[in-house]
Specification:
236 residues, mainly beta, 3% helix, 12-stranded antiparallel sheet, 1 helix, Maltoporin, Chain A
Length: 236
């Protein structure tokens, strides 16, 4: 059993307060220690304590969801590995009685490591998802990303990433209902440095640039974010 809760402190955002519980079961077939095929089923029951109001009418975002997937992990060689999943997702809104969503979902990541110090990961996906601070504002994300990682030295790792994805908001999400439709395109570029001078001390620095285009002008933005952290581990 898996549970999740999200609470907003801002009164205006409390319509996104969220509680869910989920359970899943599956069976795995192993052709070897590295190559596996898994069949997975998940059931989710989600509730939103507060309705949002659309044209004076309260809308209930509570939903029940069934997800069936096939997951594949296959190692082509010592340098190349595929990790993929594909399935079907169905979501019902029993209180609202409309806006049922059903469709295919998938994700595939191809990892290529030509040398011990260099790795490339190419990822593509189609998923139903939402931002954690706006759980009822769901969208279908179709995207692709590429991320190289270079281990420059035992103590220094450099990595980067570029992704581009389209967000098509489903008809029951608050922003799609309010504006009749919403479609975004998000481009993200990121660079990261990790420096570990000792086994107990790690310095990390990342810089991220994000640009969102949208058919709703109020959701368009571009921004650069920087984050730095220091981690010190006390070992017995």
């Amino acid at each position: 059993m898996i549970g999740a809760d999200t609470s907003q402190t801002a009164v205006a955002e409390q319509l996104y307060d969220f509680h869910s519980k989920a359970g899943n079961a599956g069976i795995e077939l192993a052709a070897s220690s590295q190559n596996t095929l898994t069949f997975d089923y998940r059931y989710t029951d989600a509730t939103f304590p507060q309705n949002f109001v659309l044209n004076g009418v309260p809308f209930n975002s509570d939903y029940k969801e069934d997800t069936e997937r096939v997951l594949l992990k296959y190692v082509f060689s010592a340098a190349t590995e595929l990790d993929a999943s594909a399935g079907y997702l169905k979501r019902d809104y029993p209180e609202s009685r409309f806006a049922t969503f059903s469709g295919d979902i998938w994700k595939a990541a191809l990892q290529w490591q030509p040398t011990d110090n260099l790795q490339w990961v190419l990822t593509g996906w189609r998923q139903l998802t939402a931002y954690v601070e706006a759980e009822s504002d769901y969208f279908v994300s179709n995207g692709v990303a590429i991320a190289p990682v270079w281990i420059a030295a035992d103590t220094l790792t450099l990595s980067a990433g570029v992704s581009r994805e389209n967000h098509d908001y489903i008809s029951s999400s608050p922003s799609a209902l309010t504006f009749f439709s919403r479609h975004d395109r998000l481009t993200t570029e990121q660079a990261r440095v990790a420096y570990t001078p000792t086994s107990s001390l790690t310095f990390k620095l990342s810089v991220t640039y994000e640009e969102r285009e949208s058919n709703q002008a109020r959701f368009q933005f571009n921004d650069t974010l920087a984050m730095a952290s220091v981690t010190y581990m006390i070992r017995p």
